[in-house]
RNA sequence: GGACGCGUAGCUCAGCUGGUUAGAGCGCUCGCCUCACACGCGAGAGGUCCUCGGUUCGAGUCCGAGCGUGUCCACCA
């Protein structure tokens, strides 16, 4: 056994050593074992290889806590880790990095660029994995995966081909969101909308026959150059005559028709809408209905193209907007400019204003896939915790649109579509075709890659070996708990569910545990630009991983955001130190050959009490974990260990440390509590557990404690409650009377029950305890303490301030009277006595009796005191 | 325009299916270096549980309305 423990817990000395040992022993490895309780699986949300560990990742603590708990319960607990290639995010970073060296993608070429990207993956993907280890994550690293590794890539290809063959993937020309900065399409989910100050330009479109004009209003004047019609509502009387006439599109000289479409809102703007099918999703629909030409006026990088006309070609889209407004004004066609707030979409990666534009892309037909995914949640096959997020999910799924999955990026999974250079024939296949099946011409692969979420959607089964029918897949799928923040329900959770339903026939997990977001002290979202996120690595170095984990799990409930502050971590560190010192105390009083944890015989009141309280804690903490109430579980452990075990039991145990029985109880309760705490504070619990008598080689593979009816001692709990009340009463009185801690006092007690004098000597600074059987203390010169089932007198001479005592008694009396009044009012209410459960009524009666007793005693005390003041 | 949170002690937040006197951490006041721990010990102060109605014998907890605040979704140009 280790020598005496240090006075303060030093996490930095402990954590690395213990983590390495766990790794070496292979404790994280999950396997199908005979006689286990079965599988318990969590797929780790794969962190992006772009990132460093941030506080958000530290919420993975919840997953680790669940895994550690289930592992101790005897499940084959698999926490499957990995990283995400994060197509667009990574590519943007690499391009940035290259720009600093004066390099560009194009200049480098595809092959070289990909080499560079893989090198990036090795460096930074590796870094974040190492950082996850610092947190204490007990993942099965032997199963670590990457969304672009061979297996995952095979799964992606398989899914693409199957969906294509089923007609659920198609290629077509649609309006998509385009990021001019990233140079790629992005999905609807990847566009963030925000309200911005903009303007509403009212513009005159003259009739071609020179008989007047129609006034339209727009927030994006530059798109005028791509207009191919103006639409009005068919029932709008203002424009009844206009329908079918021609207008001259200003600055272009083109003629465009006025068409009728009920998409137009009559009472918004001027009731006439310019239609730009190439640059607006609604206009695209209108255009399709009316067979309008589609005129794309912009380039990939957000400049105006030749179709915009020579005057504007090459201009940046926003510069063009300015110029165009100026030109309209010069022509007298600008009627007015109204300030207007409207929502602008931007790329979620680079925050450039996204451009809706028509483009040929690949899409997933979502409706048929959404149906089973909706059913899975409706039927309860998959549950959200907290349940309210089901609504978020349902709303999105029920209103889902086709998913644009192709990206004009290099870093990602190539689309398995091949085109014949000779005849244009397309083939979608698992293996690249040698030659065109039709004409024998050479085939070229589609240059686009897939949305990064396309591969993460398959994560719960691709990582287990799918499409091969592996043993892992059979055993660990479906997984159990998916734990993630609410901000990626659409991006990821929803897509995993429909993918699981489609390809596995089963939803990928039974529970989605939603965590909140971490915010800073001021409640702001953590962001790189604000630089307001503490670096978890530094926090861990300073306070320890256990303190950080504790901070993130305690007193927090699923789905709610959490404000992070260093003060909280410091408080958690203090708790770790408290555990450490309590254990140090226990440890230093043990014999060399102290037996392993067991419940001894000959238990006295306080032994029974702490065992009973421990037993209750076991039951409640386990129940909390089953309901995913991790915050509550941790809170209970904190309270139990600090308030009950340390503040009371250890103090009482000091009286009888020489008895093996007392030491056995200390060891039993402490090591059991450490087990309960282990999922949350893995390092310190392991370190201490090993220093105490124990069986087995690690706390992390020890058995989770179970509730034991034999350890339930309600009688001892009741007696102990009385004792604690008495001790607190004495302490309180001494404090208020300003009795110096060193001054011991005589204590006279009349009680229904008796306790060992030593208890009072030790905990209440008593010099001697006098038990008054069946009679009160007779002299008047004493301070009285009245409790439930006891009265205590402390001779006044030993105290100092009778006036203060009188004031205190009066205050307490008033308080008691108020309470008594309340209880009596309740008891005399027939509604209450008639309808409330018997136990509640009995409780109230008992309370009333006790209060009445206290009141009587207080009055007596006051009367007695009155004589002496 | 929809949907969803939140509003409890000075600050940050717990409080499950309604049931005795509403809790914690930090901060504050008083006293203690008491032989595990000053990252500590003991004792305190501090709350109209946002407002108004309702259901109920009983509401911080359930319902309705309102106010404040935050988030997500949405094609009104």
Cα-atom Rg, whole angstroms?
Answer: 37 Å
Number of strands: 29
User: What's the tally of helices?
Assistant: 26
Main β-sheet description: 4 strands, antiparallel
Structural class by sheet pairing and helices? alpha/beta
Strand line-up across the major sheet: 6-5-14-16
| Percent range of helical residues | 40-55%
Description:
The mean pLDDT is 92. The strands form ten sheets. The protein has a four-stranded antiparallel β-sheet with strand order 6-5-14-16. It has a four-stranded mixed β-sheet with strand order 10-11-9-12, covered by helices on one side. It has a four-stranded mixed β-sheet with strand order 27-26-29-28. α9 crosses α14. The two termini are 61 Å apart. The chain has 869 residues and is α/β, with parallel strands linked by helices. The structure holds one RNA strand of 77 nucleotides.
Short précis:
This protein has 869 residues and is an alpha/beta fold. Helices cover 43% and strands 18% of the residues. A hairpin with a 2-residue loop joins strand 28 (782-787) and strand 29 (790-795).
Main attributes of the structure:
869 residues, alpha/beta, four-stranded antiparallel β-sheet, 43% helix, RNA-binding
Topology readout:
Layout: H1 11-25, E1 39-43, H2 61-73, E2 76-80, E3 82-83, H3 87-100, H4 105-108, H5 110-134, E4 145-146, H6 150-165, E5 169-179, E6 184-186, E7 191-206, E8 213-218, E9 229-232, E10 246-248, E11 255-260, E12 272-275, H7 281-290, H8 317-330, E13 334-347, E14 355-364, H9 367-378, E15 383-385, H10 389-398, E16 403-404, E17 406-407, E18 417-420, E19 426-428, E20 443-445, E21 449-450, H11 452-456, H12 459-462, H13 471-476, E22 479-485, H14 489-504, E23 509-515, E24 518-519, H15 536-543, H16 545-553, E25 562-563, H17 566-588, H18 605-626, H19 630-653, H20 660-677, H21 682-691, H22 714-736, E26 745-751, H23 757-763, E27 766-771, E28 782-787, E29 790-795, H24 802-827, H25 830-835, H26 838-868
Parallel strand pairs: 1-2, 3-4, 9-11, 15-23, 22-23, 24-25, 26-27
Antiparallel strand pairs: 5-6, 5-14, 7-8, 7-13, 9-12, 10-11, 14-16, 17-21, 18-19, 18-20, 26-29, 28-29
The protein binds one RNA strand of 77 nucleotides through strand 8, strand 12, helix 7, helix 10 and strand 25.
